[in-house]
Amino acid sequence: MSKDPNTTFYWTRRETLRFAAATALGLSAGVPVLAGCSVGSQGSATNAGPPPSQPTGTLRVAHLGDPTSLDPSLAGNAVSLPIISHNVYESLLGFDGDTSNLVGVLAERWESSPDAREWTFHLREGITFHDGAPLTSSAVKKTFQYYKRSGTQWGVLLPPNATFDDTNPRVIRVSSPDSFPDMGRNATLIRMISPNLVDQGPDAVNKTPTGTGPFRFESYTTAKSLVLSANRQFRGPGPYLERLQFQIIPDASARVAALRSGSVDLVFNVAPSDAGTLKSAGNLAVTEKPLWRVGQLILFSNHRPVDNVVLRRALAHGIDKEAIIKSILRGVGKRQDNVLPEGVYGYQQPATQYPYDPNKARELLAQSGLTTPVELEAVWSPELGENIGRVEQAISGMLSEIGVNLKATQIPFAEVTKVIVDPQQKPYHAVAGELGWLTGGPLFFATKYFQRTSEFAAMNDLNNKMLTTPDGPERLRLLAEIQELFAQQLPVIPLYNSVQVDGHSTSVQGYSSPKDGFQPNFGQVYLSQ
Q1: Are strands 58-63 and 243-248 parallel, antiparallel or unpaired?
Q2: Closest by Cα among 43, 81, 48, 75 to 520
Q3: What is the 8-class DSSP label of residue 80?
Q4: Which of 20, 196, 233, 267 is deepest in the core (most CB within 10 A)?
Q5: DSSP per-residue codes, 331-353
Q6: Which residues belong to any copy of the Solute-binding protein family domain (predicted)?
Q7: What is the model's pLDDT at position 25?
Q8: Terminal C-alpha separation, the chain
Q9: What sign has the CA pseudo-torsion 133, 521, 97, 181?
């Protein structure tokens, strides 16, 4: 595939299916592959034994790029979150395994008022930050205020006009003029920063991350590596590793090659086409996990001609999602017909569906009043998903068979980010990518992500009601209505539920892919001897 940052591709549906047939999903080369959507570890097992009594060894992780920020109030992508989340920093709350049920982390218990306007978190005793500062309600308040400062990505996780009561050093109370029902889920993504570091300002927070997590920040060399070392004062269990070394390897093929050669121990998000060869190696293992992440085509619904809802429905009927999963994802994925992934709070499968039906797509296109072929351009960047370029190329080919010429164009990630923030800046019609619902709840409804990207104002009234309605039957009803509205109006065409495929040495024990796809916890990982 061309590395030209502004390259246009066209694949027909037949070429998409031929791609699967030519590779026989890997079998033509005698390579075993992953079938369907099985979950769990695959590869040679080892008799690992118990974890070490003291931190031992270095885990070398192939990382796809330099972090854009080490400031947790700004970090929000696959190059930043895996490093600092759960490893350097911790949150008040977390998730119970792979569910969206909440459990205490730095808070031992919590409660909210019936109207969800006041949230109270009771802090664990005896916890200190890496620099020795104690975890108190005042420290938590400083982190909250830091997140709420101007320009942060994650300030939206806290209520507008919130007040923070730190009168009791072991209790922090968050009060809001309006109901804020997602505070508990949002608290899983707010990382507690040392108050000493907060006092030094954003530059210091970005350069020397300091939290309460199982690992301390040690060093960062641009374009080379970032190193964390064991926090020996951590309350346990773990950490069991002496060091975590994130080796920066931007090229996906080079990351897999490094794993095969033994230069690294773990690679995130391996392409399904590589999973079979890794599994066949006696010293490597492959794990799969369905994620709270959706592969999708976001349509800029105020741009002509995709402002035509009949055209959007034609596009949905013209995309063969099963063929994409079979040929591009090598069977590792699940058809997705909802903007929300299953397992996230409020998930409800919409009644409106769009089965693959090219004849129906052509019929709708004729009803749209548009002149054919309809000319569209969709953009993508590799940072939005390992396979997203091939997915967009396949969609381009499928739509060409119904009378739509979709140019699938790769552009730099920085430009994609600008397009997402303000689609009016660029003459594109759509962007393809994968969206991870990090809080196990309606995060991107709360942040009004779709109003910005797809310019979908039709959801505003329902969304505003949902955001200020406490959890319960009424809120679930509102969420179901929003999901049905998305299905009917199609500002987004959901494609597949992502399954993360990670590869690692069989010496790596205790590792589990994170359900959100971005934030692994290495505190329980160790290397077998």
Answers
A1: parallel
A2: 81
A3: T
A4: 267
A5: T-EEE--SSSPTTSTT----S--
A6: 102-418
A7: 25
A8: 40
A9: positive
Q: If we measure between CA atoms, which residue out of 162, 168, 198 comes closest to residue 89?
A: 198
Counting Cα atoms < 13 Å in the Cβ hemisphere of 497 gives 19
Rounded-to-integer distance, Cα 527 and Cα 529, Å: 6
For residue 467 the two structure tokens come to: 């955001």
Q: In the chain, how many domains are there? A: 2
**pLDDT at residue 423 in the model:** 66
Would you call 461 helix, strand, or coil by DSSP? helix
Q: Determine, yes or no, domain membership for 188.
A: yes
Examine the pLDDT at 27 and tell me if it is beyond 50.
Answer: no
**SS3 of residue 528 by DSSP:** coil
Q: Is there a contact between 51 and 239 (Cβ–Cβ < 8 Å)?
A: no
Give residue 269's pLDDT band: very low, low, confident or very high (50, 70, 90).
Answer: confident
pTM of the model: 0.86
Contact (Cβ atoms closer than 8 angstroms) between residue 175 and residue 81: no
Identify the domain containing residue 375 by its residue range. 8-23+291-499
In the prediction, which pLDDT does 252 show? 87
Q: Please report the DSSP string for 493-515 in residue order.
A: EEEEEEEEEEEEETTEES----T
Outline where 355-472 has alpha helix (H).
Answer: 358-367, 388-400, 413-421, 443-446, 449-453, 460-467
Residue 17 sits in the same domain as residue 76: no
Indicate the pLDDT class of residue 82, thresholds 50, 70 and 90. Answer: confident
219 touches 230 (CB < 8 A): no
By the 8 A CB rule, do 492 and 30 touch? no
Instruction: Say whether both 97 and 161 belong to one domain.
Output: yes
CA angle 81, 193, 74 (to 5 degrees): 40
- Is there a contact between 70 and 206 (Cβ–Cβ < 8 Å)? yes
> What pLDDT is recorded for position 161?
92
Minimal CA–CA distance to 154: which of 215, 214, 80, 83?
80
Return the H-helix or E-strand segment holding 175: strand 171-175
401 and 479 housed in the same domain: yes
